[in-house]
Amino acid sequence: NAAWAHPILFRRIEDARRARPDLKMIVVDPRRTDTADMADLHLQIQPGTDVMLFHGLLHLMLREGWTQPDYIAAHTTGFEALQALVADHTPEHVAQICGVNTQDLLTAARWFANSPATLSLYCQALNQSSNGTAKNAALINLHLATAQIGKPGAGPLSLTGQPNAMGGREVGGMANLLSAHRDLANPQHRAEVAALWGVPEVPAKPGLTAVELFEAAADGQIKALWIACTNPAQSMPDQTTVRRALQRAEFVIVQEAFATAATGDLADLLLPASTWGEKEGTVTNSERRISRVRAAVAPAGQARPDWQIASQIGQRLAAELGRPQDARLLAYASPKAIWNEHRESTRGRDLDITGLSYAQLEAAPAQWPRPEGTTQSQPRLYTDGRFASPDGRARFAAVRWEPVSEERVSKFPFSLTTGRLRDQWHGMTRTGTAGRLFAHSPEPCVQLYPQDLQRLGLQDGELAQVRSKRGSLVLPVQASAQIAPLQAFIAMHWGPEVLSGRDAQGQPGLGVNVLTTSAFCPSSKQPELKHTAVQITPLPSAGRWSLVAMAWLPAEQVWLARRALQQHLPRFDFASLVPFADPTAELTDQTPRTGLLLRATSSQPCSPELLQQLLHLLKLDTPDTLRYQDSERDQWRALRLNMPDTEGLRSLQGFAVAGDTRSGRWLQDLLEQGRALNWPARQWLQASSTPPQGSAPLSRQVCSCLNVRADAISACLQALPGSDGERLLTLQQRLQCGTRCGSCVPELKRWIREVPAPA
Fold first, then answer.
1. Which of 489, 475, 485 is nearest to 452 (CA)?
2. Which of 3, 68, 271, 749 could link 147 by a cystine bridge, Cβ 3.0 to 4.6 Å?
C-alpha cells in the first residue's frame, strides 16, 4: 500500500501519471487499499498466491509471443526448466487459485511485457512469507523474460521496510553474511575477511536467524540475548514463544533509544543508544547511493552510538577473556575508521567502492560500484546484460508455488493479514508518542468484509475475539469495503503497549503478534507475518462491564501516566490505551496539548481500588470533579470541567464512564472539540446514547497535518464543479488539505469520486 507506506515515492508516481496519462498502474493486493483504488487494474488475489500469479503471467507471455528470446539466449540461463514448469499454469487454473478473472490476467501480462518500461515495486508482503524467496524470484523471472531490466524505468524495485536496509546488508548485517555480499558458508569468502582482519580464521558456523534464535532461547539453548535497534517483544511473530525466550534467558541486554519499546521492560540491562538525529556515518538507499549522515544534536544523557557501544564492550570482553591483543580488532576511533575498513572489504566485489573516500562523501553522495582507478559511479546496473555471477548471466529460478503455511480450515476460517497504518511506523516506539498521529486511525480494530460482519451478528465497534493456533486477543470490529470475504486485517503496529487484556488462561495480552505464525521461508528465514488463519467470534456483551476514560493531562505527566496505566491493562479481558492531541495545534508546536484514552471491558466489574487508581492517574479524583455513582448497578461517572468563564461556559477536561458507557462517544467528541457549554451538572452526567441539546458529533479527521475533517471536505466538494483534477486543486487551495506531507491525497481523490460535482 505505497500510498500509505511510502508517501514520498507515491507522490512521484502520481506526478508521473499526470505527466503521462497513458502510464498504467497495476496493483496486486488482497485488500482494496487506497493504492489499489487508484490503479488502472487491481488484481485482488488470495493471500499467498503471488508465485502462482507470476507463473500464470509468464505462461500467457509465452503463449502470446510477448517474451524476448534473443535477450534470454544472450544473457540468462535456466529458462528451459522454468518454461516447462509454467506450462500447466493456464489462465483458468491460475484464476481459480488466485481468485481473479482470466481477462485481467491477460491484460496484466500484456501491459507488463509490451510496455516500453515496466517497474515492479514490492514490499514486505512478498518478503514476509514462508515462500518469500520464491515470490521474489518469480517476479524477477518476469523481468528477465521480457528484458524489462537494465534500462530507465524498468526492473524490480524492493521498497524495503527500513531506511538503510541496503546499507545493513552491504556490511553483512545478517546471520549468514559477511561484509560486501559475502556468504559465511563460502570458505574463500571467510578467508578474505580473515585476511582483512588479520586473524587466523572466521567461524564457519552461521548464527541463528531471528525466529530460530528466539525458539532456541525459549528451549534454554541460548543463555544471553543482546538486542539492539529492534523491538522483538512487539514485532516478532508468535509472541508467546518470544516472551518465554526473554524470560528464560539468564541475561537480556536491550540497546535502545526509546523507553517506550516493549522489549525494554524485559531487560536485565538497558544500554541507552543514540537515535538517528544524534548519529554520524553513512546510509545507502535503494539506488545504491551512499550518503553521509551528520548529527543534528548531541546524544542525550549517557546515550552513545551503537558502534561505540559494541566497540567498547568488545574491547572489555577481550581483556576479560585473557586476549588483550584482540582488543585492537574493535579499537575504532570514529565512524570514518569503520567506513574505511568496510571500503577495503569491498575490493573486487560487485559493490566495490575502493575508488571512493570519506572526503568525497562529505562533498556529495555517490553510488556503488566505483572501483579504485575510476572517477565515476555506475548509475544503472545491467545495462550491458551482464549480471553478478561467475559467467555474467542471470539465473532463472524454476520455483514452485506453495500455499501459505497455515491454510484456512473450518475451525480457523478467516485469513488474517497485517500491514501499516497511514500515520504510524513499525512498533510505534516513536510515532506512538505523538498523539496527533492517532487522529486518522485512533484505536485498534479488526477490519472485516461487511457481509462477514453481518453473518457473525456484529456491528461496528462491538468486540470480537480473534484466535489463532498460538493465542488470542479481543478487538473492536470495523466493517471495511477494502477487505475481501473471509479475510481480516489488523494493523501491525498494535503491540502490548497499546492493545492488551488477558486471554482465556488469564495471561497478559501480547498485541497483534500473539496471533501470527513463526513459520518462515527456508531460504531467507523471514517469517510469514502477512498471513495467519484465525477464528473470529463475537464477545458476549450480556452482563459485561465496560469502562471508557479520557482526559487531557499536563505535558510533564502524560507519559508517566501512560506507563503506569499500561501496567493495569492485563487486569481486563480487553483494554486499549492510546494518546490523543489537540487537533488544532500547529505542526511547529513541539509539545501540543496531549491526553490519554482508555477503553476496557471485563466479565466482572473492576475493584473499587483499581478504579480509584485509574481515576487518580487520569486526574479524575480532584475535589472539583463531578461524580455519579450507583453501586448496586456498578455504574460510575466522573467528569472534570474547567472553571466557568464570564458567561458561565465550561469545557470538558476529562471524563470516565463505567458500567453504562453509552455517553462515552459524545463526551469524547466534546472533549476533543473543546466546546464550551453552560450545561448544569445533571446534563453533563446523564447516561444516554445521544447528547443533550447543543452538541454535535466530531467528524473524522482526514488530513492529520492541518486537521481537515471529513465534513469540511464533503461540504466544500458539494460546491465544486469541474474535472476530478480541477476539483482536487481547488479543494487543496481552499482547505489546504494534502498540501503538506501528501499522505491524505489518495483519500481526497476517493472523496472527489464519491461526492458528485454540482450540476
1. 485
2. 68
Mind giving me the DSSP string for 656-719? EEES--TTHHHHHHHHHHT--B---HHHHT---SSPPTT--PPPPEEETTTTEEHHHHHHHHTT
pLDDT given at position 695 = 65
739 — phi, psi (to 5°)? -105, 0
Distance, in Å, from the CA atom of 133 to the CA atom of 528, rounded to the nearest integer, reads: 12
Judged by DSSP in three states, 523 sits in: coil
Dihedrals φ, ψ of 642, to 5°?
Answer: -80, 175
User: Which grid coordinates belong to 655?
Assistant: 471524563
Q: Check residue 543 and give its pLDDT.
A: 86
Q: For position 124, what pLDDT does the model report? A: 87
The CA distance from 405 to 416, in Å, is: 13
Contact indicator for 103, 94 with CB cutoff of 8 Å: no
Alpha-carbon distance of 342 to 340, in angstroms, equals: 5
Q: What's the whole-number average pLDDT of the chain?
A: 95
Average pLDDT over residues 677-692: 92
Please provide the CATH number assigned to the domain covering 2-158.
Answer: 3.40.228.10
Confidence at residue 693, expressed as pLDDT on a 0 to 100 scale = 76
What is the pTM (predicted TM-score) of this model?
A: 0.95
Question: pLDDT for 707-719, tens place per residue?
Answer: 999 999 999 999 9
Q: State the Cα–Cα distance between residues 173 and 333, nearest whole angstrom.
A: 21
φ, ψ of residue 286 to 5 degrees: the values are -70, -15
Side chain identity at residue 558, one-letter code: V
Q: CATH topology for 165-367?
A: Rossmann fold (3.40.50)
At position 99, the amino acid (one-letter code) is G
Task: Name which of 36, 32, 25 is nearest 112 in CA terms.
Answer: 25
* Section 146-164 average pLDDT: 92
d(CA 649, CA 654): 16
Query: What is the model's pLDDT at position 587?
Result: 80
Residue 344 has pLDDT above 90, yes or no: yes
Location of C-alpha cell 458567561:
647
Sign of the four-CA dihedral 466, 472, 474, 476: negative
pLDDT at 586: 84
Identify the architecture of domain 701-754 in CATH.
Orthogonal Bundle (1.10)
CB 126 within 8 A of CB 50: yes
Give the whole-angstrom CA distance, residue 676 versus residue 61: 66
Confidence tier at 503 by pLDDT (50, 70, 90): confident
pLDDT over 90 (residue 93): yes
Instruction: List the chain domain ranges.
Output: 2-158, 165-367, 545-684, 701-754
pLDDT at residue 759, rounded to an integer? 85
Query: Judging by beta carbons within 10 Å of its beta carbon (0-12, 13-18, 19+), is residue 582 exposed, middle or buried?
Result: middle
326-344 mean pLDDT: 96
402's CB contacts (< 8 A; 6+ apart) are 51, 130, 131, 134
Q: Is 558 exposed, middle or buried (0-12, 13-18, 19+ CB in 10 A)?
A: buried
Convert the pLDDT of each residue in 188-208 to its tens digit: 999 999 999 999 999 999 999
Residue 576's nearest CA partner among 566, 561, 588, 587 is 566
CA distances in angstroms from 710 to 3, 61, 702, 757, listed in the order given: 19, 45, 6, 16
- Report the SS3 class of residue 467: strand
Q: Which helix (H) or strand (E) holds 106?
A: helix 102-114
How long, in residues, is the chain?
A: 759
Instruction: Report the pLDDT value the prediction gives residue 694, as an integer from 0 to 100.
Output: 61
3-class DSSP string for 418-459: EECCCCCCCCCCCHHHCHHHHCCCCCCCEEECHHHHHHCCCC
